[in-house]
Structure formats: C-alpha cells, structure tokens
Design a protein that fits this description.
By secondary structure, the protein is α/β, with parallel strands linked by helices. It has one domain: TIM Barrel (Alpha-Beta Barrel), CATH 3.20.20.140. The protein has eleven helices and eight strands. An eight-stranded parallel beta sheet has the order 1-2-3-4-5-6-7-8. Strand 6, helix 8 and strand 7 form a beta-alpha-beta unit. The longest helix is centred in the last third of the chain and has 15 residues. The model has no long low-confidence stretch (mean pLDDT about 95).
C-alpha cells in the first residue's frame, strides 16, 4: 500500500473532500484569525500546500477548494487565487457578493474558469433570504453549483442568517440549482434540518467541526438513511477538522462498502460532474 493510501478504506476507489478552505500563503494566518468561530480553532494553517500534503498523507484524491470573500472588493482577487490551484488536485469553488452586480459576479467566475460558488453567510454578512442573493441564484441556473453553509456557528444575529427553513425556500424556488448544504443542512440545528429538508432534492455534506465523531453515530445513520445515501457527500471543513478522523468516523458508521464508497467520493463526482 502506498504511503498516501494508508488511510483509504480498501473498498474505496476515490476520496473527494467537498469542503476545504484555502487562502494565499501571505494572508492565510490573518484570514483564519479574522474568520474565527467561537469554540473552534484551526488545526492547520489554511495554505494550499499544506492541504495538498494532508491529502497525500490521508489518501484523499481530490478536494473542492472554497474561496470566500467577506467584501465585494475582494471577490475577483479571491476567484483569481482559487482558479490558480492545481486542477488535478483541486476543483475551485469561487465567491460572489451581493454588494456587486449579478453581471460583475458572473463575469469574475467565468473569467477565472470557476466551477462553482461557496456561500458563507457567517463570514459574508448577508443571509440566505437576501433578495440580492436570490437574483444571483436565479442567474446561476444549473451552470454553477452552490455549496452553502447552513446553521449556526457564529454568535448573536449571524446565526439567523442561514437556517434550514431558508434553505427549503431556496430549493423550492430554484429547482434547477445544484445545491450542496454543509453540515447536514443545519449546523447545530439538526432538529430543524430534519423537518425542513425532509424529502427535498438537495445534497447534504457531512462536516461537523471539530469532528463528526461528536455527533452520535445513530443520529448520523438516521439522517443518511432518511435522506438517501446517494445524496450525501463527505466533507471535512479543513483546516477546522482532521480529514483522517472524518473518514474514520464515516467508516465507523457501518454503512456497508458500497454506501461508504459513494459517500467518500462517488456521489460528489456525479453531482459536480467531476472527471475524477
């Protein structure tokens, strides 16, 4: 077994991490400090080179690299950075901001060859019900898949910016939108997510920093079984969680070889149409 495959379950052909955050080396430390969340600390430095090394060490073949701009003036520079990453290792998901026009946001994504968009209300300061975001979602159609944070994680009013109920409205309003909901569709809001996202054609992602193992395995199995394992994908939320521990937590669920392989890579490859 190759060194980089020592954490790969033997029945899994490909592992794709749907949820990693990276910044340019020069600003990674500052960005992590500015985006700190109560009760959580980064385990790694947020640099693409460090992520690539962790991927090799943990048997991860590919990662979706997420860029997030907290202000409109940083959108194009953020998209330029994530687009520069090695496409053999990373699929870049860029950023948009409601404080600039739909046309400007789309132009930046297309200019840099960006495959999809990350929306993060906790850090970007606008909610999932913002009409300006809905204008963007309508413009995305099925062209740009969206990965969005859903749930709590900050403090005070920011926790009300992205709820499972809001996500339900988006799914119903934009049926063509390819949407991936982080943290099982409701970080620290699992009860609401159970009710609001029931039977919706949406993809759920598994990250739960500081680690999926902090959620009772029976709860995780119930969520996956009810929603449909074919619509659940693995994500670590690197650098906030250890990918090896997250892969192990999924393996410990006892879902069976075929389901585990689908969660760890097959499903995301299909949803995002990745040639991996």
């Amino acid at each position: 077994m190759r060194r980089e495959d020592r954490h790969r379950p033997p029945e899994v052909d490909v592992i794709i991490d749907a949820h990693t955050h990276v910044w340019p080396d020069a600003i990674a430390e500052k960005a992590l400090g500015a985006n700190a969340l109560p009760g959580l600390r980064a385990l790694r430095d947020g640099k693409a080179g460090t992520l690539a090394a962790d991927m090799r060490a943990n048997g991860i073949d590919h990662s979706v690299a997420l860029g997030v701009a907290g202000a409109a003036k940083h959108v194009d520079r953020t998209n330029e950075f994530v687009s520069s990453l090695d496409r053999d290792r990373f699929t870049p998901f860029g950023t948009v901001h409601v404080d600039q026009s739909v046309e400007a946001n789309l132009a930046s994504l297309r200019r840099h060859g960006i495959h999809g968009v990350k929306v993060h209300p906790l850090f970007q300061g606008f909610g999932l019900e913002d009409p300006r975001l809905w204008e963007l979602l309508e413009a995305f159609g099925s062209e740009f898949p969206v990965i969005t944070h859903v749930g709590a994680g900050g403090s005070g009013a920011v926790n009300s910016l992205s709820t499972p109920k809001m996500l339900r409205k988006i799914v119903r309003t934009f049926p063509q939108l390819r949407l991936v909901a982080c943290h099982f569709g409701g970080y620290h809001m699992l009860e609401e997510a159970r009710e609001e996202l029931r039977d919706l054609p949406i993809v759920l992602e598994t990250s739960w920093p500081p680690g999926l193992a902090t959620v009772h395995p029976g709860t995780v199995r119930e969520i996956i079984g009810r929603h449909g394992a074919e619509r659940v994908v693995f994500g670590s939320d690197w650098p906030m969680a250890d990918p090896a521990a997250e892969i192990a937590a999924i393996g410990a669920l006892g879902l069976g070889d075929e389901t585990e392989a689908a969660l760890l890579g097959g499903n995301l490859s299909r949803v995002l149409r990745l040639p991996v």
